[in-house]
Amino acid sequence: MSLKTLSLTVLLFLNLWLSGIRSPASASELQEQPKKIAVVGAGIGGTAAAFYLRQEFGAGVKIDVFESGTVGGRLATVKMGDHEYESGGLRIHPLNLHLKHFVEKIGIPPRKNVASKMAIFDGKELVFEESDWFIINFFRMLWRFGFNLLRMQMWVETVLDKFMRIYQYQQYGYAFTTVERLLHAMGGDSFLTLINQTLEETMMSEGFSQTFLNDMVSPITRVSFGQSVRIHGFVGALSLTGADSAMWAVDGGNKRLCLGLLYHSKSELIPATVTSVGIEVRPSKKGPTTSFYKVNYVGESGSAHDLYDIVVIATPLHQGKSDITFSGFSPPLPSHYPGRYHQTVSTLVNGVLNVSYLGSTKLASDFTVSEVLTKESKDSVIHSLASLDPVHIPQGYSRPPASHSKVWRVSSPHPLSREQLQNIFTSWDSVSETRWLAYPAYRPPHRKTPPFILHNRLYYLSAVDWAASTMEMSAISARNVALLAHHRWHQQGTKIDQEDLHTRMRGEL
Ligand SMILES: Cc1cc2nc3c(=O)[nH]c(=O)nc-3n(C[C@H](O)[C@H](O)[C@H](O)COP(=O)(O)OP(=O)(O)OC[C@H]3O[C@@H](n4cnc5c(N)ncnc54)[C@H](O)[C@@H]3O)c2cc1C
Ligand SMILES: *[C@@H]1O[C@H](CO)[C@@H](O)[C@H](O)[C@H]1NC(C)=O
Ligand SMILES: *[C@@H]1O[C@H](CO)[C@@H](O)[C@H](O)[C@H]1NC(C)=O
């Protein structure tokens, strides 16, 4: 049986089955449920979408998740020696509530925490170094950054407070049709200003000094997004939340979340590349016609296609990220939206660090810094350097000093040459390089983001990357898209793009 007839049989069967078990009920229940949903991409966004779609539409719908590469997407691990290490998305904020919910639901513990120690490198030497003692750190920071650091934390908290509103809206089922509307619902006009200005402009107008921006803020935006303080204020503020010491990760690797969500959502993984999505109109028993999305894909056993009621695109529609043609849509849909993704190269090195590369006069055996951020300078070839712990922390593990051979992760805009590696490390026994098109190049002023709705029942999850590309943002977008798909299927407009939710919900509570 070909895939096409198989899918038709399944459709017919489901149709009979659904009409068989449904007893006459209220008008909204008479509305048929969708039968098949496709999700393109099995990163955290796509797999979270499968999870939330199952939650919205119930057990009856078949959910297929297409993945051309490896489940996890920008969450990936690399094996070095006896252990696995993260080569993509690394750290999760304690207030990322969706991700927290996922680990609880799936039953994977967070990874055991190993205390870290940060330093800042200006291309020649370490200009700041944390000590093991909180009180010393406090005075060192105060000495170097004055009260700027405290004020920064307070400013970031006001942004975070507004950010957290999204969880309540989503809990009550509210959804948004564009990234701008979603941001506006969280933080009002102030969030639209944030996304339309550079972080530098925003913080200067809040009274922070240029020196503080160069010495403290820029190293953080470089380690988080491989870009300068000229990224927009929203993604910039989120990157500053990463300075929280309670950042966590998933035991066994962050990509386990994606596998867990796939399993939990009872969706089917189809290892294939989606090449195009079109519209197919079929006569229908009830109405005049029904339209389906025809998803064409190429897998190991050649090319095939299938029909779906709803499709969610969970991969960036950008050059180098995906190549999906949309045919038969009016107005036409592009394969690639304007704007580009930024290259970040993760080089994992199992070796011995050359501490003099960092201008340190310490003995390597006394060098216990685990995270080196960098200031922007012509001498900096790297964005950051971190001593990585394995994705699963073995019993009795403690992070060795720099004199031991261990795994370091170097992030840089370009691949490292052999000479550069020889400069940074005195010796190594293995190197693994991953070239990521990691995140959008964030350059304000803000250009309109692509919409969450590409066509009636065709959704675009990755539009959210233009607000900020983080695991949690993909999860928020996944829930938003699942809610949109549900409300629009059942024609419930009252939960979409509502204004003033914050004031209204305060009144309701
Ligand atoms: C080096 C690096 C460090 C990062 N650090 C952090 C961090 O510390 N904290 C944090 O929160 N975030 C971090 N991020 C960002 C985070 O990893 C991403 O925001 C998140 O993983 C994006 O998930 P996604 O599912 O939306 O997209 P992706 O993970 O990109 O998933 C898209 C998937 O679609 C698949 N695909 C593409 N085209 C097709 C097609 N035609 N057919 C079928 N499948 C297709 C791809 O193979 C991919 O698996 C980091 C990212 C990188 C690269
Ligand atoms: C963004 O800023 C530009 C000027 O820098 C302005 O023209 C534009 O209207 C702003 N857009 C929004 C959405 O605020
Ligand atoms: C270590 O780094 C210093 C400073 O960059 C450099 O002069 C030296 O050659 C490096 N040592 C090794 C063994 O590569």
TrEMBL record:
Location within or outside the cell: Lysosome
Catalytic activity: [(2E,6E,10E)-geranylgeranyl]-L-cysteine + O2 + H2O = (2E,6E,10E)-geranylgeranial + L-cysteine + H2O2; S-(2E,6E)-farnesyl-L-cysteine + O2 + H2O = (2E,6E)-farnesal + L-cysteine + H2O2; an S-polyprenyl-L-cysteine + O2 + H2O = a polyprenal + L-cysteine + H2O2
UniProt keyword Oxidoreductase, yes or no: yes
A GO molecular-function annotation: prenylcysteine oxidase activity
EC id: 1.8.3.5
Sequence ranges assigned to domain Prenylcysteine lyase in this UniProt record: 128-498
EC class of the enzyme, as a word: oxidoreductase
Coarse class of the protein's main subcellular location: other
Matching SUPFAM superfamilies: FAD/NAD(P)-binding domain (SSF51905)
GO biological process, one term: prenylated protein catabolic process
Gene3D superfamilies: FAD/NAD(P)-binding domain (3.50.50.60)
Keywords annotated in UniProt: FAD, Flavoprotein, Glycoprotein, Lysosome, Oxidoreductase, Signal
Signal sequence, start to end: 1-27
Domain of life where this protein originates: Eukaryota
Cofactor: FAD
One GO cellular component term noted in the UniProt record for this chain: lysosome
PANTHER family: FARNESYLCYSTEINE LYASE (PTHR15944), PRENYLCYSTEINE OXIDASE 1 (PTHR15944:SF3)
Protein family membership: Belongs to the prenylcysteine oxidase family.
Function: Prenylcysteine oxidase that cleaves the thioether bond of prenyl-L-cysteines, such as farnesylcysteine and geranylgeranylcysteine. Only active against free prenylcysteines and not prenylcysteine residues within prenylated proteins or peptides. Involved in the final step in the degradation of prenylated proteins, by degrading prenylcysteines after the protein has been degraded.
Protein name in UniProt: Prenylcysteine oxidase 1
Species: Cynoglossus semilaevis (Tongue sole)
